[in-house]
Amino acid sequence: MEQFNNVTIIKKANTYFDGKVTSRVVIFEDGTKKTLGIMLPGEYTFSTDVKEEMDILAGHLEYKLQGEDWKVIDGSGVFYVPANEKFQLKVHSVVDYCCSYLAE
């Protein structure tokens, strides 16, 4: 999906890691939520409350889910994070991403 139609966008940015990771919340008519953001180079650990789809639109990073080996995305790609887990990122270049919060 190249664009989102009929959505509400929260203007205030979510900022993490001293501004090195930022995102904006997009809410759809059915109540589902996504965030659109940018990550600057660095190493980060995130935790989830619900299952997440991380859609990497551009950039170069490595990611590690609990109990798995490091994997690489260079350009674009998608990975899924289970609910109530932590995951690690090593961001090597600016990453453009879209995170979808999924009902299980």
UniProtKB/TrEMBL annotation:
It is an enzyme of class 2 (transferase). One of its GO terms (molecular function) is purine-nucleoside phosphorylase activity. GO terms for cellular component: cytosol. Keywords: Glycosyltransferase, Transferase. InterPro entries: Ppnp, RmlC-like_jellyroll, RmlC_Cupin_sf. It catalyses: thymidine + phosphate = 2-deoxy-alpha-D-ribose 1-phosphate + thymine; xanthosine + phosphate = alpha-D-ribose 1-phosphate + xanthine; inosine + phosphate = alpha-D-ribose 1-phosphate + hypoxanthine; adenosine + phosphate = alpha-D-ribose 1-phosphate + adenine. Its EC number is 2.4.2.1, 2.4.2.2. It comes from the Bacteria. Belongs to the nucleoside phosphorylase PpnP family. Catalyzes the phosphorolysis of diverse nucleosides, yielding D-ribose 1-phosphate and the respective free bases. Can use uridine, adenosine, guanosine, cytidine, thymidine, inosine and xanthosine as substrates. Also catalyzes the reverse reactions. This is Pyrimidine/purine nucleoside phosphorylase. It comes from Anaerobacillus alkalidiazotrophicus.
